[in-house]
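Give me the fold.
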Amino acid sequence: MMTGGCLCGAIRYEVSQEPMVTSHCHCRQCRRGSGAPFMTWMTLAPDGFDYTLGTPAIYRSSPGIQRTFCG
């Protein structure tokens, strides 16, 4: 099991399964969203991830894509 959350502590989550896929993305949206040269992603089954504290805000960054963050 892995746990984590945002810097201010408003959002907490837990990952209870091994990732199906782990990858790095360096598209413009990921670079802008993270402020880094790339962003690392994990693909999980829906029942392998749960928010344990708070509800994230949603930003629709491009068609068909939404990003969540602590509001």
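The chain has a mean pLDDT of 91.
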